[in-house]
Amino acid sequence: MAKDLKEGIISERAGQKLGVYLPDEKKIYRAIPLGKVRKKTKIYAGDRVRGRIVDPQTFAVEEILDRKNLLVRPPVANVDRVVIVQTIEHPPFQHFLLDNLLVVYDHLGLDTVIVFNKIDLLSEEGKKKLQYWEEIYKSAGYDVLKVSAHTGEG
């Protein structure tokens, strides 16, 4: 690695606009991928990259480092943990959707946390359903949190 190459993480992607965070600089730069990088692969949020600072706001991406994983939706790379937020009611809980996500994330080796939100809105029946599903997912080895964004509970 050349002495002046720096490593960073793509912190944002909005269309063709990229941001790269350089931990050593503690700063986000506008990232511009060089032609050889653009032609080789698409750049995703979370990609680890090497390149050079070309001016106080701009970083030229010269290389994308190997990814440990890549999610399609949302398109991000090098994910360590996934937090899946669900509700029991409002809208009604669909365990098949959650189960499908868990299978994919388990296959990718990701640490997954299940968060049940809107617990302040639960009916008595909803509270029983929450307890039922919480026990199932905890017994399967998942971390399960119960929260209310509205009241701050959890």
UniProtKB/TrEMBL annotation:
InterPro entries: NA-bd_OB-fold, P-loop_NTPase, Ribosome_biogen_GTPase_RsgA, RsgA_GTPase_dom
Top-level taxon: Bacteria
MF (Gene Ontology): GTP binding; GTPase activity
Span of domain EngC GTPase: 77-154
Pfam family of the protein (one): RsgA_GTPase
Protein name: GTPase RsgA
Organism field: Aquifex aeolicus
